[in-house]
Amino acid sequence: MTDIAHDAAMETAHPEHESTGIDNRKLGMWLFLSSEFLFFGALISNYLLYSHRGGFQGTYPAEVYDIPFTSVSSFVLLMSSLTMVLAHNALTRKDQNGTRTWLFATAALGAVFLGGQVFEFTEFITNEGMKLTTNPAASAFYLLTGFHGTHVAVGVIMLLSLWGISRRKGGLSEKHGLNLELVGLYWHFVDIIWIIIFTAVYLLSVPPA
Amino acid sequence: MTSTERPHPTPAMYWKIAVVLAGLTAVEVAMYYINRSLHLAVVNTLALLVLAALKFVIVIGFYMHLRYEKAMLSRFFTAGFVLAASLYTIVLTALGVLVIRGS
Questions:
Q1: pLDDT > 90: what percent of chain A?
Q2: Is the pLDDT of residue B12 over 60?
Q3: What is the C-alpha to C-alpha distance for residues A158 and A177, in angstroms, rounded to an integer?
């Protein structure tokens, strides 16, 4: 019996419980993502509060943004949502090779985004003199974007885990298919949070007068 | 996706959506530079918020498949967003941050 057939047999023997017509794990993921709005909302509000308040010494984040660079990073993350949904679509068509390819592409794009963030932070700290403790606005910026970056890093690890499982077992079973869907939801959520951050933090920010 | 009745988009449709998202991002960045020259103030702020909201809705609806899912998921997700948006709008308004300003 192949690994995928074994997994399918186990799933038939131990079906998941649900009372809502929606798989409990999927419902749990949506509720978790819904609660994350409060988390990121607090961090964005914290940034808006301090970035608009004058009187702090040192460089403000809005003075050092590199909008062309961040625009490319945003584009990369946006396109990773495309590759993620293509991975899921390939799995629904039982195209295991396609699933692996798009999963790896999504992880790679996520890694590129993270590399961009590391580069941006390094530039700000070494060339612009805006360190974590320079002023509350800088701290709020690093906290928000760093926390988002941590979410992206967790997503990349989950994507690579699924990719590794797929390679080892010769494909993803129905059970792992749901895992891929849950990881996909998480990944798209990280993307929509960046859509908000890109607009509220980068494009609409102006240094205090 | 097991809980849907409507057919999901095809890969070709996903690519078209990606082109729309990339286009909206390009318009956002263009608005940023136009505003630096023309100082559009409130118009710029509103335009950028509308563009971000469009991208937000497109990703949730098509890539997260929320428009194909059961209504209960939409309600839970929307409730979380509305709760967070309302709470922080009130807090930031009370603290004097949410004043639309031109740049």
A1: 73
A2: yes
A3: 13
Q: CB–CB of A140/A90 below 8 Å?
A: no
Cβ-nearest to A35 among B21, B72, B80: B80
Q: Give the Cα separation of B95 and B103 in Å (integer).
A: 20
DSSP-assigned letter for residue B66: G
Mark yes or no for CB contact B14/A86 under 8 Å. yes
Residue B4 has what DSSP assignment? -
- Measured between CA atoms, how close is A113 to chain B, in angstroms? 16
Using CB atoms, pick whichever of B2, B22, B32 lies closest to residue A67: B32
Distance, CA of B3 to CA of A23 (rounded, Å): 9
Q: What is the pLDDT of residues A72-108, one digit of tens each?
A: 999 999 999 999 999 999 999 989 999 999 999 999 9
For A112-133, b/e burial (b = at least 16 CB within 10 A) is: bbbebbeebbeebeeebebbee
Q: State the distance between the two ends of chain A, measured CA to CA, in whole angstroms.
A: 70
Alpha-carbon gap, residue A142 to A136, rounded angstroms: 10
**What is the ipTM for the molecules in this complex?**
0.88
- The CA distance from B60 to the nearest CA of chain A, in Å, is 8
Query: How is residue B33 written in tokens?
Result: 């530079």
Cα separation of A170 and A3, whole Å? 8
Of the CA atoms within 13 Å of residue B6, those in its CB half-sphere come to 11
CA distance A127 to chain B (A): 24
Interhelix angle for A96-122 vs A67-92, to 10°? Answer: 160
Tell me the torsion sign for CA atoms B7, B11, B13, B17. positive
Chain B residues touching residue A203 (CB < 8 angstroms): 28-29, 31-32, 48
